[in-house]
Amino acid sequence: MRIIAGQWRGRNLLAPTGAQTTRPTSDRAREALFSILLPWLSGARVLDLFAGSGALALEALSRGAAFAVLCDRDREACAAIGKNIATLSAQERTLLLEQDAAHALKGLAGDAFDLIFLDPPYRAGLAQDALVEIARGGLLAPGGRIIVESAADDLPEPPPGLVVADRRKYGVAVLTMMEREDDA
Questions:
Q1: pLDDT score of 20
Q2: In the chain, where the domains are located
Q3: CB environment 133-163: b (16+ within 10 A), e (fewer)
Q4: pLDDT at 118
Q5: How many other CB atoms are there within 10 angstroms of residue 48's CB atom?
Q6: Interatomic CA distance for residues 101 and 114, integer angstroms
Q7: What's the CA gap between 145 and 134, in Å, rounded?
Q8: 92-119: b (≥16 Cβ within 10 Å) or e
Q9: How many CA atoms lie within 13 A of 149 on its CB side?
């Protein structure tokens, strides 16, 4: 796994060792996604829940995002993320939270993010729960986007306050982009 473009283009990233539930977003899907997200990257504040290796947040930082909060409850995933952050010398532009998404979202309530990535284990209901908390906590900045990676047979539904702006399929993964209802 590597950073695809930007200041860290071509830099390799570590993936968590031994984590059976970690499923990195494919290079093809990441490249397509970041082409779509280009207008939102410059100076963005990013939240990457279920971060795994941190590839999504680190790709965003490489392409011009200002700051990223990365969250994962898995100790091995956080160790890999920490090493990736150190390798890229991105400590001043990141905050790593080793906790589950529900606790992280409660602790971040009141913060506003321009991009929020949700890439939880498929079919666990975690994306839907996180979307409800994000909408309730006002975590999506005006004009911001939430990107949810899910299986095609488990598509997330927008809770009150959010709407689906776009949905694209890449292999077995579907990327759903949501925005605030008042931005639609």
A1: 47
A2: 35-183
A3: bbbebebbbeebbbbbbbeeeeebebbebbe
A4: 96
A5: 29
A6: 18
A7: 11
A8: ebbebbbeebeebbeebeeeebbbbbbb
A9: 23
Distance CA 65, CA 45 (A): 6
d(CA 92, CA 104): 19
Residue 91, amino acid: Q
For position 166, what pLDDT does the model report? 95
Which tens digit of pLDDT belongs to each residue from 23-66? 566 677 788 899 999 989 999 999 999 999 999 999 999 999 99
- Higher pLDDT residue, 110 or 82? 82
Which long-range contacts (C-beta less than 8 Å, at least 24 apart) are formed by 21-24? 21/74, 21/121, 22/52, 22/53, 22/74, 22/77, 23/52, 23/119, 23/121, 23/122, 24/52, 24/53, 24/55
Asked if the model's pLDDT at residue 174 lies above 50, the reply is: yes
Secondary structure class of 20 (helix, strand, coil): coil
Structure tokens, 66 = 């200002």
Q: Topology of domain 35-183, per CATH?
A: Rossmann fold (3.40.50)
Rounded Cα gap, residues 130 and 18, in angstroms: 25
User: How many Cβ atoms from other residues are within 10 Å of residue 11's Cβ?
Assistant: 15
Do 25 and 56 touch, CB atoms closer than 8 A? yes
β pairing state of 173-180 and 140-151:
antiparallel
